[in-house]
Structure formats: structure tokens, C-alpha cells
């Protein structure tokens, strides 16, 4: 019994949907792999810089300022100066 035109079109759509899903999963794997490689490379570079140039790039504590939110203070109270 020959397939009708509608059945053939439906099977083609199913095949395309399967191909799309497979390609989406492969793309996700590639992106995750690239993120892992970039993370390991950045971490390794940072370790190498700290080993060859100690206290120069990542370990500067003097002169470093940051904003403190004082979250432990009571809400609505007067702000205190550090």
C-alpha cells in the first residue's frame, strides 16, 4: 500500500524534529565544553601568574577599598560611619 502524501510529510517533520533536538543537545555540549576549557585556562593562568609574580597582581591588599552594606544593622536606623 503506497503512503499518502500527508503521511510522508508527517514522517519528514518527525525526522527534522529529531535532527533539531539532536543538534541542540550537541550544541549544548559544545558550549559547556568551551566554558570548561575557558574556566580551566583562566584558573591555570591565574595560578601561574601568582607563582611567578607573587604579591603583585592578585594579592594586593593595601589600597583596596570596597563598599560595605552593614546588613547586620537595624533597618530604618541612622546610618553609622565606619
Characterization of this structure:
- The chain is mostly helical.
- It has one helix at residues 5-52.
- It has one domain.
- The chain contains one helix and no strands.
- The longest helix is centred in the middle third of the chain and has 48 residues, at 5-52.
- It is elongated.
- The model has no long low-confidence stretch (mean pLDDT 80).
Give the tags.
82 residues; mainly alpha; single chain; 0% strand; 1 helix
Mean pLDDT: 80
Largest sheet: none
CA(first)-CA(last) distance? 86 Å
- Strand residue content: under 5%
**Helicity, in percent?**
55-70%
Shape: elongated
The Cα radius of gyration reads 29 Å
Total strands: 0
**Class of secondary structure makeup:** mainly alpha
Q: Unreliable stretches, pLDDT < 50, 5 or more residues?
A: none
How many discrete structural domains?
1
SSE series: H
Number of helices: 1
Amino acid at each position: 500500500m503506497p503512503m499518502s502524501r500527508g503521511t510522508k510529510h508527517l514522517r519528514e517533520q518527525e525526522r527534522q524534529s529529531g535532527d533539531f533536538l539532536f543538534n541542540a543537545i550537541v550544541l549544548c555540549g559544545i558550549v559547556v565544553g568551551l566554558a570548561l576549557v575557558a574556566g580551566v585556562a583562566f584558573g591555570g593562568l591565574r595560578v601561574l601568574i601568582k607563582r611567578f609574580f607573587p604579591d603583585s597582581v592578585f594579592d594586593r591588599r593595601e589600597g583596596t577599598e570596597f563598599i560595605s552594606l552593614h546588613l547586620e544593622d537595624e533597618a530604618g536606623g541612622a546610618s553609622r560611619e565606619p
